[in-house]
Fold Biotin--[acetyl-CoA-carboxylase] ligase.
Amino acid sequence: MPIIKLDAIDSTNDYLKQLAKEKWLENYTAVMAFEQTKGRGQMGSEWVSESGKNLTISVLVKDVPQDMISIYDFNIAVALAAVGVLTMNGIVKVNVKWPNDIMAENKKVGGILIENTLKSDGSFTSVVGFGLNLNQTDFEHLPQANSLTNITGKNYDLDEMAKSFIKSLKLHLILFPERADEAWAHYNDLLFKKDKPSAFEFPNGDRFMGIIKCVTRDGKLAVLLNDDNVAYYELKEVKLLY
């Protein structure tokens, strides 16, 4: 489980992708940084993290066969791996805000950015970026964010949390093919605001109300609309608002 540690980098995902192009890397090689200057979240959002206080890590997962685990399955496994890190550390009320924000006590504590490269043999290689607020306490300008230390009062070791995430990721990916139905059901149970009236926004700024029912096996968000019809949205077609 090689972990490359950097004092500062613009993006751990970008660094790991470039490194993988330049040399052979062992599967599950990780890059972690104490400061990330251009961290990205899903759909191009910025990931802001106080230097030295939070986990910022990217993990290389090589040659994943799609006949065993699809890209959509892979996303679910990663999300459940992240949730597992929190639950193993005593965080009880954990949810996933579609597509890949990790919530604790109804506030965002983490985020996932998965970047896949498809290969000619049908497999894919993935760089899994995970940011988790650990020891940061000041979120004055981020009212919807929080950290583990604010929730539990404990201080967290970044190295240990990095190792914990990699182990959780490996375990969930290994077990997923034989537990796919169970994993999908668990993920859907964890959905933030599931079965509750919620506000959504289209890319053009238009908003509407709906109720999240589930995420389908092909990665679409199923939303019950006011006219009792169910609409299915792709990743970039709609955003769930807080």
Remarks:
- Residues 42-47 have pLDDT under 50 and may be disordered.
- The domain at 197-240 is CATH 2.30.30 (SH3 type barrels.).
- The first strand starts at residue 3 and ends at 9.
